[in-house]
Amino acid sequence: MMKPKTEAEIEAMRRGGRVLAEVFEQVSDLVSAGKSTKKLADEINILIEQKGGRSAVIGYEGFPEYLCISINEEVVHGIPSPKRIIKQGDLVSVDLTIWYEQMVVDSARTYYVGDIATAPKNVQKLMEHTKRALHAGIDAIHGAGTKTGEIGAAVQAVLDKAGLGIVRDLVGHGVGYSVHEDPNVPNYGLPNQGVSLPSGLTIAVEPMATLGDWHVNILPDDWTVVTRDSSLAAHFEHTVLINKDGAEILTS
Ligand code: MF3
Ligand code: CO
Ligand code: CO
Questions:
Q1: Which one of 30, 223, 231, 251 counts the least CB within 10 Å of its CB?
Q2: Ligand 1 binding residues, C-beta < 6 A
């Protein structure tokens, strides 16, 4: 069921989205070589709670931590661990999903550990085009009546042109009353496919791209999604509001 949010609910999601954007600004300074992903996650979670947010993923379908950190060939749903140490040159994807005033907002960014200008060219390409694909998907939203296929097609066009793999097993989604709501928002497809989005709907748009093939596996921890060919992956996500004639990014 797709239920548009009320104006009061949207206001709460704007405030929650602003919290996530502020936290992400600080995450870039916290991601550093030599630190464990558990330590990084705890530091981020403290920032979230200081700002009045609360993790929406701990306990979600049994997920054991406050947020997801996925490194290199890990695409999404990485579980923070005191044993996993971040190193120079890693690609660190941080996915934050929080409750704020009874509403959920969801956003992710990938960080390069080190000076991005010195990163291998293909890593720069992966980061840049995955982020660009996210914004192309959001820009394809022309308001109420936009089909999810229009978003998918716009995301796919950018990633295909860059020669990147598009992870297909995971998709964007409605968000707000809970972490995952209808509809699915695939990162591929044709403009006439999918469902028509009403004004007031809030969705997470979240391309996941790889330097290789699109196939993924799940690690024995039952959560971490990795590329089957071990190629590097990036993930950028915003929660957006469908309005009368466009979209509003709530998590920037
Ligand atoms: N934030 C994820 C998403 O974008 C959901 C994570 S669910 C978890 O859809 F349980 F893995 F944390
Ligand atoms: Co997310
Ligand atoms: Co999401």
A1: 30
A2: 57, 60-61, 63, 68, 77, 95, 97, 106, 179, 204, 206, 223, 237
- On whether the CB atoms of residues 88 and 59 are closer than 8 A, the answer is no
Give the dihedral of Cα atoms 84, 74, 184, 8; nearest 10 deg.
30
Q: What is the CA radius of gyration of the chain?
A: 17
Nearest Cα residue to 70 out of 61, 57, 79, 81: 79
Mutate which of 67, 94, 106 to test ligand 1's pocket (most atoms within 8 Å of Cβ)? 106
pLDDT one-digit tens code per residue, 105-161 = 999 999 999 999 999 999 999 999 999 999 999 999 999 999 999 999 999 999 999
Pairing of strands 233-235, 225-227: unpaired
- Give the chain's domains with CATH numbers: 7-249 (3.90.230.10)
pLDDT at residue 36, as a whole number: 99
Asked if the model's pLDDT at residue 1 lies above 90, the reply is no
Residue 92 — φ and ψ, nearest 5°? -110, 115
pLDDT tens for each residue of 99-112: 999 999 999 999 99
DSSP alpha helices (H): ranges in 31-120? 37-50
CA of 170 to the centre of ligand 1 (A): 10
